[in-house]
Design a protein that fits this description.
By secondary structure, the protein is an alpha/beta fold. The chain folds into three domains: 145 residues, no CATH class; 45 residues; 88 residues. Helices cover 53% and strands 14% of the residues. The protein contains 13 helices and eight strands. Strands 1-2-3-6-7-8 form a six-stranded mixed sheet, sandwiched between helices. A two-stranded antiparallel sheet has the order 4-5. β2 and β3 form a beta hairpin. The radius of gyration is 22 Å and the shape is elongated.
Length: 290
């Protein structure tokens, strides 16, 4: 797939990571400000940028004219070769469409941007690139990325909420019109932050469940569940159910159905025991399972 000249115009590279310089208008005084926007970040290559994501400063722009500070929007592909999932994509909150494209095509344009960044990274990474990384790619709103990456997601969520509220109060004083617009989206953010889907994204059980559903056979899955008893319980079921909900929200019915099968199996493990549940699934007597 050819790269978009529009997306990569004015960019500069650092090994795998990719940034773009963009002129944006200050929402307070309308002065044009040069902003550095990171489009691809290799977490190993640039731990400093990963730290900026965690503390919420990666895309903060400060206007040299009036001192107003705000966040610059854009897509971001995070490459984490030492973690799962390896790839995280944050779509832009607002997709800038060419004049010849209607608003209905915003989602399509966002997907094109993601594919362009994936193509770029695949070319840079070279032979170590794995197709399964794309299959396992996580879609996360940029706003929620600090929470997702935090070692203490609950504390990070609280800190993020406080940061947003403080920013809104400052915006109310400096730009009432922009404040009213921002308040209109706050309810949606709070709903997302408190949703089961968000809880699943930050749950420590998510990575264990990912390994469970990635097992190559039911026999392998059986051994994995025996080694991870935390999967047999309502908490793991709730997390997996939320991930399934997320898959349905993304209209990925195939993945949702695949996960539903694993969820049912975990429920049976809790109801009748791990050995009997897997024997039932495989279609063999329980005593044939070690």
């Amino acid at each position: 797939m050819p790269h978009s000249r529009r997306l990569f115009k004015g960019d500069f590279l650092m090994a795998h990571s990719l940034a773009q310089n963009r002129s944006v208008a200050c929402p307070n005084c309308e002065q044009m400000v040069e902003a550095e926007i990171w489009l691809v970040i290799d977490a190993v290559e640039r731990p400093d940028l990963l730290a900026d994501i965690r503390n919420g400063t990666l895309r903060i722009m400060v206007c040299s004219q009036c001192g107003f500070s705000g966040e610059v929007d854009g897509p971001l592909l995070l490459y984490r070769p030492e973690d799962d999932p390896v790839l995280i994509f944050c779509p832009p909150a607002t997709v800038l469409l060419p004049d010849d494209k209607p608003e209905e095509e915003a989602e399509e344009v966002a997907v094109e941007q993601m594919e362009e960044l994936l193509d770029y990274l695949a070319e840079k990474v070279g032979p170590v690139w794995q197709k399964r990384w794309i299959e396992e790619l996580a879609l996360i709103p940029f706003l929620m990325l600090p929470v997702t990456l935090s070692d203490d997601p609950e504390a990070a969520a609280r800190a993020l909420t406080e940061q947003i509220m403080a920013g809104l109060e400052k915006l109310r004083e400096e730009n009432p019109e922009a404040y009213e617009e921002a308040v209109g989206t706050l309810g949606e953010f709070e709903e997302m932050l408190g949703s089961d889907v968000m809880a699943a994204l930050v749950s420590p059980l998510t990575s264990v469940l990912d390994e469970f559903v990635s097992c190559g056979s039911w026999e392998e899955s059986y051994e994995f569940v025996k080694a991870h008893p935390e999967l047999v319980g309502e908490e793991a079921e709730d997390v997996l159910d939320a991930i399934i909900e997320s898959a349905y929200m993304m209209e990925d019915d195939e993945t949702a159905d695949f996960l539903e099968e694993h969820l049912f199996l975990l429920e049976r493990c809790r109801e009748i025991g791990v050995q009997k549940a897997f024997a039932e699934k495989i279609g063999i007597p329980p005593d044939e399972l070690a």
